[in-house]
Amino acid sequence: MSVNVEIEGEIAIVTIGNPPVNAVNRAVRERLLALAQELDDNPDVRAVILTGAGTLFVAGADIAEFDRPAEPPFLPDVIARIERAVKPWIAAIRGAAFGGGLELALGCRFRVATESARFALPEINLGIIPGAGGTQRLPRVIGVADAIHIVAENQTPGGAEALKLGLVDALVEEPLLPAAIAFARNALEHALPSPSLDRPVSVPSPDVWAEAEDRIAARAKGAAAPARALQALRHGIEHGAEAGLALERSIFLELRATEEAAALRHLFFAERAALRPAEIRGINPRPIETVAVVGGGTMGSGIAAALLNAGLSVVLIEQDEAGVSRARSTLAGIFDSSRRRGQITDDQASERMARLETSIGYGAAARCDLVIEAVFEDLAVKRSVFAELGRVCRPDAVLATNTSYIDPRLIAEGLPGPERFLGLHFFSPAQVMKLLEIIPTPETAPDVLATGFDLARRLGKIPVRSGICDGFIGNRILRRFRAEAEALVCGGVAIAAVDAAMRGFGFAMGPFEMQDMAGLDIAFLYREAARSRGEDVPEIPGDLLVRAGRKGQKTGGGWYDYAAGDRRPQPSAAAERIIVPLVSARNDVAEEAIVARLMAAMAQEGQLILDEGIAASAADIDLVEVHGYGFPRRRGGPMFQAGRASADKT
Ligand code: NAD
Fold first, then answer.
1. Are residues 206 and 305 in the same domain?
2. Is the beta carbon of 374 within 6 A of some atom in ligand 1?
3. For residue 162, what are the domain limits?
């Protein structure tokens, strides 16, 4: 039974136990509804405590049910019944009270919580809004301005903050249940407060709504749900709770059926699965506390920052004094900017720098549990680094390369103990980007692979296992995506039209703006190297631009022109003239057709990657694109898009 009842004197204790997160599913709803009646009818019971089994209250509704039509009894009706129960219900909360869990708690007459409690209405992250009264009861309990932050802006107060907000009536110590029972006995001595929904609420000035709308629009990135959550909340304040509940429910059901919500659910499940792939289940990772990072350039510094942020100790190894001091100042800059943004305190910034040691020789690597190499992308340089590491590191230390393209098997050739080697491919900026591609070689030991996944979890990253191929999963799809974008331009589509279409789809930048920012020269040199090996690599517009000295923003122009000190791209007649030999007559293609071409190219490459066994699942490919390449989250990823496109055709 997922809902358990015990009677302690005149108090009934109802415990929701539906591991792992006590999700409210149909069985839980049915039982709660029946219990509200049963306990009202029980003359021995005077109050009801509602709590969750284990370390949390209820982390939400059962998302797996969202892909089916809603089944009665509906959560709003269950909560309404609890709220109107003759015997008052008291929520006793430790850990997460999220989504439907918080809505249930709001339906209770009182809430008591421990410090560990955490309150959230995260529905907007799944493309929906709270659907069981959250947008209506919360403002009536804590006031409109604070409710907006939680309903539409993802604020997640803890126990102490919730007490200040008036969201909980008492903050108690563990053990929770005896404290809740004492609270209940005391409450029964006094007149009961009104049910949440009946409480008076003051209507805010129009400025409050306007400011909230602006804040929400600025952060939404095209997502619909946050503004709709605000709309439901406001409607209830302006037209009464009943009208608010009706609108909330209809928006909830409408959004639940959208592509955006399906995409966000798809990613939610993909992310959860990514952290615990079947192949490492039950395998213990190696303990990692001190990590050496070899190379302190763009990637090495970012990787070191990510490790320091996660509480690990770092030894950063560079080739000379200049390299060391450059890396130190990059890291100081990274923590300083987190400090200025209020993400960490002064003390935390200094403490992180104190966990950083820099070194020119490899000696310090001898006491490291893990080494991540991030030197130049050059096989000979990387091999010489691993030759040193093979000599100095402990035989059980895990050794990793951050290479973007070089076959890790070649890098590990001759390494003593190749079973401890793997690729850990971070993305720039490494302290920010969530993706970590994990690339085992055929010799990588299972516990070394498990160590890679465990490290990702500790760094707050999304790990995706990739097989070995040129560019692994992400850069291989990126190359195909760029090639298709250039093919569109060769076919007469304007450069700016391609970029505008992809921005319209939800990318922060189009493919050409992105290349201008990153520089066109690295990909060019890569193609030139292939040509010099005798491979047949046809000339593309990007080659002509680089040969003409247009390498992107850093040279004042690439696909676009840039005024000095200005990163805004301006259409470039010069660029168009240079690429003319490879471009057909102007051919205007509709935005949707441009998007469809580029999506199809990504999905085709993704399918090849799947067929070759490079990625374990289509969902993994979507995670790579969303967390490493700026693919708009609300679109679910290229494989999700391909699934929708083929479903539309059938
Ligand atoms: P970078 O040129 O910014 O940094 C390389 C650093 O390595 C330099 O500071 C250099 O002094 C140092 N170095 C070179 N040889 C060394 C040695 N023998 N010992 C110690 N330090 C040495 O390069 P980067 O962009 O940080 O790239 C590093 C690696 O990460 C490459 O393999 C690259 O392909 C990969 N990578 C780069 C990106 C990116 O976006 N830049 C993304 C993912 C992976």
1. no
2. yes
3. 2-257
295, 426 Cβ separation under 8 angstroms: no
Looking at the fold, whether 521 and 455 belong to one and the same domain comes out as no
Taking only the tens place, the pLDDT of each residue in 183-210 is 999 999 999 999 999 999 999 999 999 9
177 with 61, same domain? Answer: yes
**CA dist 363 → 74, 315, 367, 394, 397 (Å):** 64, 10, 8, 11, 14
Query: Total domain count for the chain?
Result: 3
Cis preceding-peptide flag for 511 (omega within 30 of 0): no
pLDDT value of residue 220:
85
* Residue that the structure tokens 């591609």 belong to: 437
Q: What ipTM describes this predicted complex?
A: 0.99
Q: Are residues 289 and 407 in the same domain?
A: yes
pLDDT tops 70 at residue 274: yes
Q: DSSP for 551-598? A: -BGGGTBSSEE--TT----EE-HHHHHHHGGG--S-----HHHHHHHH
**Whole-angstrom distance, CA of residue 391 vs CA of residue 372:** 16
Q: pLDDT of 131-151, one tens digit each?
A: 999 999 999 999 999 999 999
Q: From the candidates 83, 103, 248, 625, which is the catalytic residue?
A: 103
Same domain, 289 and 321: yes
Specify the pTM. 0.90
Residue 514 beta carbon below 6 angstroms from any ligand 1 atom:
no
160 and 303 assigned to the same domain? no
Per the domain annotation, does 620 fall within a domain?
Answer: no
- Measured in Å, residue 624 CA sits from the centre of ligand 1 at 21
Q: How far is the CA of 375 from the centre of ligand 1 (A)?
A: 4
Type of residue found at 490? C
Could you report the per-residue pLDDT of 577-629, keeping only the tens digit for each?
Answer: 999 999 998 899 999 999 999 999 999 999 999 999 999 999 999 999 999 99
